[in-house]
Structures are given as structure tokens and as C-alpha cells.
Predict the structure of DNA 3'-5' helicase.
Amino acid sequence: MGQNETETYQLNDEQRKAAQFDGGHALILAGAGTGKTSTIVARVDHLLSRDVDARRILLLTFTRRAAREMRLRMMQRSGESTKLVSAGTFHNFCLQFLRRWPDLFGCGALSIIDRDDQLQLMKLARGTIVGKDAQFPKSAELVNYYSYARNTNRTIAEYLKQFTEHDEETIQRITGVLQDYTKRKLDCRYFDYDDILQLFAKGLHQNNVLREKLKRRFDHILVDEMQDTNPLQWLILDGLRDPAKLFCVGDDAQSIYAFRGADFKNVHSFTDRVEGAQVLRLEENFRSYQEILDVSNWLLKQSPLDYNKNLHAARGRGDKPRMLEFSEDLEEADWITEDLAARHEGGTPWAEHMILTRTAFGARHVEASLVMKDIPYRFVGGTQLLHSAHVKDLLSLLRVADNSADQLGWMRYLTLWPRIGEKTAATIIGKLMGISRADMIESILTERTKANPRLAEAFAACVKLLDRPQQAITAAVDKMTPLLEKKYDDWDRRSKDLKLLERLAEKHATIGEFLETYTLDPISESEASNEDDQDVVTLITVHSAKGTEAPVCYLLGVQPGNYPHVRSIGDDDQEEEERRVLYVAMTRAKNELIMTGTSRYQGAFVPYHNRYFAAAGTNSQLYFLSDLPGHLLGDDLPFDDDPFDEPIRSYRD
DNA sequence: CTTAGTAATATTTTT
DNA sequence: TATTACTAAG
């Protein structure tokens, strides 16, 4: 333990000071690429060398990917004992305790639902409470209200009054819908993402027995990406600290999750809130060459906010970032994949390249081009495997087998069968509610769906295989194939996904765990099929890319309309957040940063708050890079401006 | 009530 | 592009 310190793993002075900090609580302000992960890993190593019990260290990350990376790095540095460190996301950590002490938290068996299910449930609630009313907020907006209010620890009414323009009466009606939604959620034993955090925080703060138990479990709480924690998450940290010590690492210039309730205050007010806390800074960038940082620094300097960031490259100088402009996004996509192929031909592994995109939608041409050229890739944040219609069809059976109160699952499963529509299904579901014994459910199904004997058979088969997920899927596919074949005319293509599902299920102990894993950590089709492949290009949304890096980074769609994104225009805070998104994207690159964009911006119009918004570079205020000084970039000329029909003028003139 | 066919709808970011 | 929403006919 700890024997490697300073020999193999070199830290600079700032990092070492942070890793070995011996006071109380600490906030580490760490700029992009300043070695946040290394410092956290080194801190764990330091604690272990001081004989801190690994089981008493808690490491909270923002995503599962980050948690995985941390575990790997800790293992490499400090060995087997780090397996005992609790490392995971907030959601993961909280859920673990809800499961361990359900009685103390007051929750029984539950299924985690994703945003899709939330939306559907909200649609039902909205339908019964307000009926048809085009003026009334759509279900998607209602889900956002509900989630945002809870993540910022406000009541619904308080949030609506403060952040929306709705009148008193509308607020009343919205509250009514959300109440109905909550009731439906409980009826189905559903838990949405926010319930996990909220119930944990509530138990932690309102149940003294529970708080004492939880507080006594950890001595050190390490938090990654502190700038993206929200008030609800802060409540959790605040409840767990003392005597446990907080070690929070973050960078306000990389805060890009305000839409999820993330609050800078967790960083800016840290020392006010936590008595005696110390602030340490990491300012030397180990990731990128100075030229990449020059452009990034310039971007932040344009902001009216003072980020007080001026990253300095420890690696010195390299190539200037490039900016390429194309007239069509198909050309842009093809250029990138051709460049990739050429580099690979030249001996560079695929894995050294990352393509960053503002939106998953914006990457569709690149994805198509990668497929065309047979370049292996994984798309992090791309279309989710579990969201395609045929997969949902299949999973509906597994869901109801796992949780018989799952009404959305029943509705989907039942209506797949001939002669069963919404009404018939609703009647059957009504009969099923409140019954938990599988054999009784089976007999009701058999009784009510005589025309489709396989409906009940398939259910019975899956229930028997609850702890053999792979076999359960095989059985489900077997029984449902005739149905799905008829429903989809491109069944051949779709059935491949179900094979993929079988393979994924192998690694899981129960159906419940299988469903939960991929609900909390959605997986895209390309990720699922390339799971074991190491050498692949990474296509990734900027939001998912926070915390990662690659030697060569392509930044897709660097053009007006994307930075800031049109949907954020009009709200100053949102626009400013978009600048940070671009900053995060740029600072991922280690050696080369290649920005591409199209001049003909998205055809013509983009819907924006029910208006049409033309943004084709008419207003330079709307594009962060419109005033970017040319000397910061490499020599690529914008293609359209390249004058090929002009006589050359001597430089001596 | 169900179903087949057509129209519309929405594509920011995520645990 | 793909899925969901709606409408008219069975």
C-alpha cells in the first residue's frame, strides 16, 4: 500500500499537496486537464498508506464510466485493497443503502424507471387531470418541472412561482397533475432517478437512527465533478460529513449541468457552508499542448464572467488547432472519416481518436459514414439500445415478470397480442393489480386471454427464470417472435438486437438487476455490440465526454446554432453554460484539436419556442467563435473562401 | 373495441 | 428517421 508514491507516479507540488492534505474538509479547484483523477487516486493511496480502512472511503463520481475509470486507476496504483473502497455515482450509492435498509427508508421492492417511462406516466396523469388542452404544458415539460424542483430541493409550487410565468390557477392544475403522477408511480412501485436521491436524503436528514448509522460508515468522502452537483446532492454530502471529511474536486468553468439543477454555489459557497474548509488549486495542465489551451483560454476570456482561468501547458508547444469549414454536413462527415482512415493506415490505433458532438442528433451523418467505411466505433450517448421499439416490446415481458405492479409494462406487453387493445388491456390490468402471486396472475391471464394461450405461457416461463436472465430472454424471444415478425417489416435487422440483449444478460444475476443496470446506465447499440472491442474510435456527446481525453479530437458542428445551441438562446445563464460546453469540448484534446463545421447552417430554420428562428450567422453575438483571432489557428483555409481564380500577387508588392 | 393506414411530431445536454 | 398519435373503417 502506498509504496509507489512519488516513484512511479509523479505528482507536481500542487497535486501532492492536495493528495496528502491532512486538515479537515477541502475543496480542490482543478482546471481542465490538471490531473483531477490522478490526484484523487493519489489521495486514496495516501489515505491507505496512513492505515485508513479502505471500506471507510467513499468516492462519488458523476457517471458510471468515471467510477469504472477510478476503480481501474486505484487498482493499478494501490492494488487489491482498493476493491473495498465504495466508488460509484450518487444514484448508485444511495440505491445500495435503500436496498440494504428498506425498512429504515420506508421503501419496499421497486423498479427504476427511465425518462421514457416517466413521460408516459405523466401523459396518463395529464390526460386524466386536464384532458385535451393545447395551452397547458406538455408532459415533457411537466416531467422537467417535477425533476428540477426536486433536484433543487424546492416544493413544486415554490419552483413554479419562482421560475415560470404560469398564473396561480395553472400552477394549481400543474400541481394536481404532478400529484396524480406521484400516486401512479407509487401504485406501480416505480422509482424515478430523483426518488433515489430524495428518499435517501430525506432518511439521512429526518431519521436520527439512520443518520447515525450512515455517518458512522465513512471517514473520507471524495467527490469528483463537484461543480455539477445539485442542491439535493449537496444535502446528501452535508448530511454525511462530520466526522467524515469532504474532499471535493471541481472546476466552475466546466459546469454544464445547470439544466439538471447543478448549482455553482456548491463550489463558490463551499467555505461559507463548511466551517474551516480549505481551498487548494491545481493550475498546471498536463493534458494538452499550449496552442490548444490558448484557444480555450481565449474563449473563457470573452465571457462577461470572470472564471479566473488561464491554463498553462506543462507539455509545452505543439500544433495549432485547426478549423475546417464545409458547405454540406455530409462533406464534413466524410472528411472526418477519411482523415481517420488515413491516420489508421499510418499506424495510429483507432482508439486514439475521439469525435465530439454537441447533440446526438448532430452526429448522424458521421455515424453513417463510419458504418460505410467500416470503421469500428462506439457512440457514447447515441441512440439507446433499450429505447428501440422492438427491445421495449421484449423487455415489457421481463418487466412484468420482475414487478407485477408495473402497469406500463403490462400495457405494452398485453397490447402486443392480437385482439387486445388499450381497453381490454386496461380491464385485465385492473384485475391484476394487488395480486403478487405469480401463479394467480398466470391463471387470470389464461382465463382472460383464451385466444392467446402463449401470452400467459410466456409470462409463466419468465417468472420461473427470474434468476437466469439470459434464459429468460431466450424464452421471451422464442414466444414473442411470431408477434414481432408481424409487427415489424424489417424484423431481420431488429432481431439482431435481441441476440445482443441475450449476450448482455449473461453477466447479470437476476432480471431485476439486468433491467436496473441498463436503466441507470443506458447503453447505445454501438456500445453493446463493440463491448469487448478495445481499439475503436469514440463518438461522444460533449456532456458525456467531461472527464475524458484523447490524443486526437474532432469537434463536430462548430458553427452558429450549436455553440450556443439555438435552444439556449435568449436565456443569459443558459447561453453562458453553452460557452463552457465548448470549453469542455476543446480541452479534451491532448495533441490535436480539429474543429469542423458547415457554413450553410442546418438548411434554414430551427423551431424555437414555437417561433422560427433564422440563425445563419446573421448576428455574430450568437456564435462564440465569430471573433476568434486567426493567429490562434493552424493554416487551414475555409474552403468556400479559397479564391482559386485570382492571379497571385507577389509578397514584395 | 381493435386495427390498419396516414399524419404529425420532435430531435440539447443525463443520472 | 422512427416512433407515436389520430382517424376511419371493420
About this structure: The CA atoms of residues 396 and 413 of chain A lie 5 Å apart.
